[in-house]
Design a protein that fits this description.
Number of strands: 24
Largest sheet: 15 strands, mixed
Distance between the termini: 87 Å
Number of helices: 19
Strand content: 15-25%
Shape: globular
Structural class: alpha+beta
Helix content: 40-55%
Length: about 775
């Protein structure tokens, strides 16, 4: 680069070195190609498994708990296992979840006996033995066919079961559980743990699930024996995709899978899911056409590797230790004990302190430079945060990001990645000369080491993002700081110093880029400001290279400021002009028919996820916008239009018995849908004092009770796939306290009169979760 000063060339080289790290990080989020059907019998074949998937759910019919389609899928899974030589059984049980939901489930259970099994009279694991559980759920939500969630998991289990038959018998028995009712509140898993005799032998579990239709199969959760499980997995996995950030964050989110139930029952193990194309999740687009054979391959590879590793392990005395871990581009797993994080962070702090003291003593760093450098680093983070929040607000007002995932996410992501880079580089160029090379180096790693220390103390699973680059930097900088100075070259251009900057920058990019990319996959547009901040922080190791670059207009150095800023503005512009929804990435729009039996008033209700009514639906009826839905627990805008009144009766809530003890009154009631709707609910208002709730004789876990987010702080109890006779419910209320509760039944369709609304829904809108429903509600008064 003739005519370009040395500082610019070094900065350009540093940015160029980050490109491979970014590209490898992108590749590391992709699943491997599916193996052909001709793959050896002992290996998992995505091609074979995809044929199983098509036989299971290729008709794209939703099959929620209790439906006839649910029974059809169950029978297909049983047939597949029988054809492989297994003897599957059906466990039927009534179970209740901590989410306040209950239902009768039908689990498919089979077993591959261990090599020590000699008693042919017992079908289960040998008494006193340990077993490994391999699980996935076969039910879907009412709105979608559930091909990826979790038909892919079931198909992966069946192909894994085939491969296991071709391998030597395992040391520990392997129990196959294809469970029902996961979407209704992990009901099948609960039924297995509570009522199935084989559950007592389960010491480890491998669970397969999905929150999308593509992407890498990520190991995102373990039991309490974190280090042990990760060590086993990394030794056997071909393409490991995992990190302790996902584990740490997931444990703090209100999300659960079947693995939550197994873990609560004391099992160790591994939980896998893929999360690409989350716009298809729980919608009709979770179909066979959108299913990814590559994701199925990766899910199955992980299942086979994990279950064989666990089945060969000693499960009698599992060490309970946490680990910090992550993969490098699915090729290598870096792992260390979580207890090491804090000592290593302290080591980095102390070594850095000696290095900074050495810089002061050798006059390579002055107090004014240190002050400017610390201020520059803080300014980068603070200004990035402020501008990112403003940009996200403007994009929301411009209708570019009304929902978390849009049809064209790349411009949105590019805008915030460029924003982080633009702010970091601009501030470094404008003020870097005042801080100098060693000032910017010292301040950068002071803050990185401080973050390492704080995060290692609070959430060790996250600390590697800052700890590993900090360790690389303070160690690689030792020769540059403690060896005799090269007075001819000067401190800012010493080869060891430059090499240290490049190494630490590469470490930060190789580790951090994948986490930031995955952050968007998992949480979407809601975390865009955080993404910009993290990108800016990830680039701060390059700041010393900008200490002698001129920002004068027309100079090469100015490009480092204007190029990312221009890219940010251009990407933001395209984010606004590109359509937010498409047929492939539609908006979630459920259409509801609601009849209030108390007033005999009926309405059509639309509650679009974006808060904006699709035009074709808006003109199909005379809708009125309201700030919230019709029920006290509703949140967010809704649109109403008068609807014809159905003659169907409201759900009944008959008090069978009541008794008072002290200041508490206990009730026994029969809850029933008079129109044979599959779902009935009873909703108690906040601070009602309701407790000791049972349904169908099953008590709810009040200690771990969680309410569904869309019901706010109301206490909700529901029965799914309720029988025509109804379900008996027990509960206790404070005596002498007036109270109004709601009783609701739900069917997963619209009345015939709603066909005109279904026809008006554009291709850019789809139902989700429960889908289009008919709701009839009534209130029940409890008087003193």
């Amino acid at each position: 680069m003739p005519g370009v000063d040395l500082g610019v060339r070094r900065a350009a080289l540093a940015v160029a070195l980050l490109a491979p790290a970014f590209l490898f990080s992108l590749e590391g989020l992709k699943p491997p190609a599916p193996s052909p059907a001709s793959a050896p019998a002992t290996q998992f074949s995505g091609s074979r498994a995809f044929e199983v998937l098509k036989r299971l759910v290729g008709d794209d019919i939703p099959h929620p708990l209790g439906s006839s389609a649910n029974q059809t899928v169950r029978n297909r899974a049983i047939s597949e296992l029988k054809n492989l030589g297994y003897a599957p059984e059906v466990q039927t049980a009534f179970a209740c979840s901590q989410y306040g939901s209950c239902g009768t489930v039908n689990n498919v259970v089979a077993i591959l006996q261990s090599s020590s099994h000699t008693n042919q009279r017992t079908s289960g694991p040998p008494p006193g033995s340990s077993a490994v559980l391999l699980s996935a759920h076969y039910d879907s939500v009412p709105a979608g066919p559930g091909v990826s969630d979790d038909g892919v998991g079931v198909a992966a289990i069946i192909e894994t079961a085939r491969a296991l038959k071709a391998l030597p018998k395992p040391k520990n028995s392997i129990i196959i559980l294809i469970d029902d009712g996961e979407e209704g509140g992990l009901l099948g898993a609960r039924a297995f743990v509570q009522f199935h005799p084989w559950a007592h032998s389960v010491r480890a579990a491998v669970n397969l699930d999905a929150r999308g239709t593509s992407g890498a199969s990520i190991m995102f959760e373990t039991g309490t024996a974190n280090e042990w499980a990760v060590h086993l997995f990394e030794r056997h996995a071909s393409h490991p995709s995992l990190n302790s950030i996902a584990y740490t964050v997931y444990n703090r989110l209100p999300n659960d899978t079947d693995f939550t139930v197994f873990k609560a029952a004391g099992a160790q193990g591994l939980n896998f899911a893929f999360i690409g194309d989350v716009v298809h999740y729980h919608t009709p687009l979770d179909n066979i056409g959108n299913a990814s054979p590559a994701s199925l391959q990766h899910q199955g590879e992980n299942a086979l590797a994990s279950v064989t590793a666990l089945a060969s392990a000693d499960l009698s005395n599992i060490p309970i230790r946490d680990a910090v871990y992550f993969d490098l581009f699915q090729s290598q797993v870096i792992r260390f004990r979580a207890s090491w994080a804090l000592p290593v962070a302290l080591f980095c702090i102390f070594l850095l302190a000696f290095q900074i003291l050495r810089l002061f003593r050798t006059n390579r760093l002055s107090m004014p430079q240190a002050f400017w450098a610390i201020t520059i680093w803080l300014a980068i983070v603070v200004i990035t945060a402020i501008v990112a929040v403003i940009l996200r607000t403007l994009l929301h007002l411009g209708s570019a990001i009304l929902v978390d995932w849009v049809a064209h996410p790349r411009p949105v992501q590019l805008a915030f990645w460029s924003l982080g880079a633009g702010v970091a580089f601009t501030i470094a160029i404008l003020f870097g000369r005042r801080a100098g090379f060693w000032g910017l180096w010292s301040a950068t790693w002071f803050w990185w080491c401080a973050l390492s220390l704080v995060v290692a103390s609070v959430a060790p699973g996250l600390c590697y993002l800052f700890l590993i680059p900090s360790l690389v930097s303070v160690i690689s900088a030792v020769p540059a700081i403690f060896m005799p100075r090269n007075r001819e070259l000067g401190p800012a251009v010493e080869p060891f110093a430059i090499a240290s900057v490049f190494l630490s920058l590469l470490a930060a990019g190789a580790i951090g880029f994948a986490a930031i990319l995955l952050l968007y996959e998992g949480l979407g547009n809601s975390v865009l400001p955080l993404i910009a901040i993290l990108v800016a922080i990830e680039l701060t190791p390059a700041l010393p290279l900008f200490s002698d670059i001129s920002s004068a207009p027309g100079t090469a150095g100015a490009l480092f400021a204007w190029a990312p800023i221009s890219l940010c503005l251009t990407a933001a512009f395209f984010s606004v002009i590109l359509p937010q929804f498409s047929a492939k990435s539609p908006q979630r729009v459920n259409i509801e028919y609601w009849k209030d039996a108390d007033t005999n008033v009926a309405q059509w209700i639309i509650e679009p996820a974006s808060g904006r009514m699709p035009g074709p639906i808006a003109i199909a009826a005379n809708f009125t916008r309201a700030n919230k839905g019709p029920f006290p627990w509703d949140r967010g805008p809704a649109y109403f239009s008068p609807a014809p009144r159905l003659t169907d009766s409201a759900p009944s809530f008959t008090i069978l018995e009541s008794s008072t003890v002290g200041n508490q009154r206990h009730y026994r009631a029969l809850l029933k849908s008079e129109r044979a709707a599959p779902e009935v609910l009873v909703l108690f208002p906040p601070k009602s004092g309701v407790k000791d709730v049972t349904m169908g004789g099953q008590a709810f876990d009040s200690a771990g009770a969680k309410q569904l987010l869309f019901f706010g702080d109301w206490n909700v109890y529901r029965c799914l796939a309720v029988s025509s006779e109804g379900v008996e419910m027990g509960f206790t209320l404070p005596a002498g306290k007036p109270l109004q509760i709601y009783v609701v039944d739900v069917s997963y369709n619209l009345p015939a009169s709603g066909k005109f609304l279904l026809d008006s829904r554009p291709l850019t809108a789809v139902p989700s979760q429960d889908g289009d429903v008919t709701i009839i509600s009534r209130s029940v008064q409890f008087l003193p």
